[in-house]
Structures are given as structure tokens and as C-alpha cells.
Amino acid sequence: MPVFALVDCNNFYASCEKLFNPKIKHRPVVVLSNNDGCVVARSAEVKALGIPMGVPWFKIREEAKRYGIIAFSSNYALYADLSNRVVEVLSSFSPNIEVYSIDESFLELSGFEGHAGGLAGYGAEMKQRIADWLGLAVCVGIGTSKTQAKLANHCAKKNLAGSNGVCDFTTIAPAALTELFQKIEVSEVWGIGRKISVRLEAMGINTVRQLRDADAETIRAQFSVVVERTVRELRGVSCLDMQEVVPDKQQIMSSRSFGQLVYDLAELEEAVASYVAKAAEKLRHQDSLAGGIQVYIRTNVFKPEVPQYQRSVTLPLPNATDDTRVLTRWALRVLRRIYRPGYGYHKAGIMLSNIVPAANQQFSLFASGGAGDAQSRKLMGVLDGINGKFGRGSVKLAAEGVEKAWQMRRGNLSPRYTTEWDCLPVVQAR
Q1: Which H or E run includes 156?
Q2: % of the chain at pLDDT higher than 70
Q3: Inside any domain, residue 4
Q4: Across 208-335, where does the E strand assignment appear?
Q5: Which residues of 133-280 form beta strands (DSSP E)?
Q6: Residue 332 belongs to what domain range?
Q7: 59-88: pLDDT as tens digits
């Protein structure tokens, strides 16, 4: 029977901001979206104040002054780098890891049941190592399906079950697990959004237990095969393999290990360009735009005898876009910045972030058109249509060109502590 763990960083963006500034360790902190618009992350102190997610910053300025709330601009470079470091730590616990989002990763733990402290002890070891090595707090949920692992993580965060931020469903007796599921609202189940939960509640399904015990075939007929799989996953039957789940709409990642080590920049450029094309296609499929892009490269960490190098950089884009041409130009610019000759690269990848619905696109007052306009949309539609009919990659871009530097409003940006030498804190002896 497969076993999965879901490791989730607590209040990730806000925690990253606190990490290098001990003075604000216990202060209420929010992180703002591009152009310092809306609250996209909250520390535990802010959540306790009742400040909602997504509220425009200008609407809570006075409230922020009253409670001493500190606001930061989104520091994507810092968050992405720390996210990569968390994944690197987790990679030492399992050879099969799926980066689900910037602050969440699934691990397959089949075969680790014999750990001295059991799977819960193994999860506690993950949690402690991330705390010791990175200074970040995580919660760990464990179950025999990915949906169970996600729900177990929720229980760990809310202190509903488990202890010290680790919850292992595999060690909870069936009767106790049923009692626990009865206490949790159905809307807390992974993949059960607001619209589906309303329909389920209309059918008398209000709790996780009721959804788990519902007739799977009826659920499939009323909803979809996806919701049917959720029912079976709640029962502990694994229906979702690693990397099978549709990427979180907040991030879309595309990466691959190479069949042989790659040394040449031109080959890396070709790989990165192909990853961008794949991610951009997914972006358009869900009718969204990306406001940021990350590129990373790394050598083979499992061969310590060879020279090692890894680097990633995240750029916020001047305007959110779904245009493959624009995304490719920025990706290649980042790649050329982080590439170092003389290393054999084992893996490369890109991640589109700060994703928003296409209908919500906002242009700069000084934007000159381009990505997102009618011509771009038409061209990308033709591109997707041809590749959809004749196979992905039937029509490809030349993957060349760079754009001018740009600036955006980020008045409360913290230093890039982990990616820029000039941003390292300086300690002076007196």
C-alpha cells in the first residue's frame, strides 16, 4: 500500500520575511501583491486580527497603523530560493517528491514504515531538519492517498489530530478516524471548492465522513470522475499518482531531468524554451496570465563526487502575460544570468507564478500593447490549435531575443538575502 506525506510551510511568504529580521519575529506581517496592491500572505498574528486574504492594502492602512502591521512587497526571488531549499532538504527523505506549489510538496514514503519512530517520527525528523537548517516551520500530513495526506496536514495545522505539527492517519484507529472526519467540514477536502461544496451540502453531505461514505458511482454521476476519485482517496485508496494532479493555479511548473549531462548553454536554452512553451500552453488552457517567472538549473545532487552547482532566479514581469514569446524571452535572459560554464547540468526547469485570471489583467499606464492584446491572443490560439491537432511541438518558437529592463512599484521590498551578496546582513562589532 502506498503512503504519502504532504509537507506545507506555515505562512510561507510572511515567514520568509521574518526569517532574516529578528525584530519582527512576533510582529503582525502581511505580504502584498504586485504593485503593492492586495494582501496575498498573512502571518499568524494578522490572521488572529481577522484581516482577510485578498483585501486591498489601501483599505486597511489605518487598521494596520492601529495594530502595528508591517507590510512587505512580494519578494519572489527570496520566496523561490527558500522554496528550493526546502525541496532540497525534503529530497533527502524520499527519492520521489512532487513540488505541488511554492510552499507544498508531496513525498512518497512507501518503504519508510520501518523508521525507528514510525512514519510520524520520520515526519517529525523532516520538520525538525527544515527548522534547524532553514529556520522555517512546516506541518506534515501522512496518509495512504494524496488526498488523505492533504487532509492530515490540515489536521496538523489546526491541532485536530497528531502532535507537534505532524499527523499520521495510518496510525489512527478506523473508529477514531471516522469520528475525526465527522468534525471536519467537507469544504476542507482537497479539490472540493466552494461551488462543489454547496452542491454537496444540498445533497446532505456536510462533513468529510459523509463524503467518504457516499456512493462513489452516484458522486461520479452528479459531479465528475475527479470528485469520485476524491471519495475513494478519502477511503485510503490511492487514485492519484505523483505528478498526476493538475498544477495549482498559483504556480505552473515544467521541468525534467536530462537523459545525459548537459554542458552547453545552447542546449540548456533549447530545454528551457521547450519548458516555457509547455507551461504557457497550460496557462492559456486555464485562461490565466502569469506575472512572474522562475528559472532554475542544477547538477546531479546524487553524485557528490562531481562538481556541484545550482541556482534559481525569479523575475516579476512588468505585465502579466500568457504569450509564449514574451515568457521565453524573459526565461532565456534569466538562464544566461545564472548559467556557469564547466558544469554538467542534470536538470532544469521553469515556474510561472503570480497567476491571475485573464479577465482581471491590468496594464500599466505606459504599456505599449504586445502580450495580451488581440493579435497576441489570436496568434497563441492558432499555435495551440495546430499543436492540438498535430501534436505538441509541431509549431515551435525560435526562442531568441531579450527585452529592456523594467521597473515596477515595490515600495516595501525586503533585501534578496539569499540570492544577492550585497543584500547579506552585516554584523558590526562594537
Answers
A1: helix 146-157
A2: 90
A3: no
A4: 252-262, 288-299, 310-321
A5: 138-143, 166-168, 252-262
A6: 252-399
A7: 999 999 999 999 999 888 899 899 999 999
- Determine the Cα–Cα distance for residues 209 and 218; give it in Å rounded to an integer: 16
Q: How many separate domains does the chain show?
A: 1
Which among 335, 326, 253 has a CA at the least distance from the CA of 295? 335
| Cα separation, 161 vs 169, whole angstroms | 9
Q: All 3 cell numbers of residue 9? A: 510551510
In a domain, 83, yes or no: no
- Against a cut of 0.90, is the pTM above it? no
Residue type (1 letter), 82? L
Residues sharing a CB contact under 8 Å with residue 276, sequence separation 6 or more, in sequence order: 254, 293, 324, 327, 328, 331, 350
User: 314-343: per-residue pLDDT in tens?
Assistant: 999 988 899 999 999 999 999 999 999 999
Cell numbers at 355, concatenated: 497567476
C-alpha 237: how far from its chain's center?
Answer: 25
Contacts of 47 (CB under 8 A, 6+ apart): 11
The position carrying cell 459531479 is: 223
Please state, in angstroms and as integers, the Cα–Cα distance from residue 58 to each residue in 32, 33, 37, 62, 179, following that order: 11, 12, 8, 8, 44
Grid cell for residue 415: 533585501
Q: Where are the beta strands (DSSP E) in 339-426?
A: 345-357
Give the list of residues 6+ apart from residue 124 with CB closer than 8 angstroms, or none.
117, 140, 164, 166
- Pairwise CA distance, residues 306 & 61, whole Å: 52
Parallel, antiparallel, or unpaired: how do β-strands 104-108 and 97-101 relate? Answer: antiparallel
Q: Which residues partner with 290 through β-bridges?
A: 321, 355
**Measured CA distances, 411 to 37, 71, 74, 159, 363 (Å):** 11, 10, 10, 37, 19
Residue 161 lies in a domain: no
CATH code of residue 375: 3.30.1490.100
260 within domain boundaries: yes
Specify the higher pLDDT residue, 349 or 419: 349
User: What pLDDT, on the 0 to 100 scale, is given for residue 120?
Assistant: 94
pLDDT at 405: 25
Between strands 345-357 and 252-262, the pairing is antiparallel
Is 292 strand, coil or helix? strand
Q: What residues form DSSP beta bridges with 72?
A: 31
376 by DSSP, 3-state: which?
helix
